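haha ok so turns out i had the wrong file open the whole time. this is the CORRECT one, sorry everyone. sequence first:
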Amino acid sequence: MRQFLIQCLIVCAGFLSGPSLAQLPPSKAQGNITFITGGIGSDESSAIFAAAKKWPLLIEMSEIDSSGRGVWIVGVDIRVLNDKQQILLETVCDGPLMLLHAPSGQYTVEASYQGKLLKRGIVLKEGDPQKLTLFWRP
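then structure:
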């Protein structure tokens, strides 16, 4: 009986140790862009950070609080435009992290939070994952 209890505890510990619980939110697509938004909770954010190595772009969104510390935010409006300034993606992020897969090329990321717009240019290359960190100041 004691052996059985020890084996059960070992199995349960394995299930509760990070990666086995970590699952990515479902991916979505608009045109030829695939994306995932999320990052709520440590399991989901860990899963997104781990997957980022295989995605061309990871976007992390934070607001600087009164103490000068970055705090993750949700509800950011994201638009991705191509080099001709045509909108390819328009969505609202339901977490502080976004993974984005688009064909290699030059893009503009427009991110709006509480009426404040940030624009960043980015060049995506297959096999060259990048991270774009966006900070809004109060």
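The helical segments are 2-16, 42-51.
again sry for the mixup
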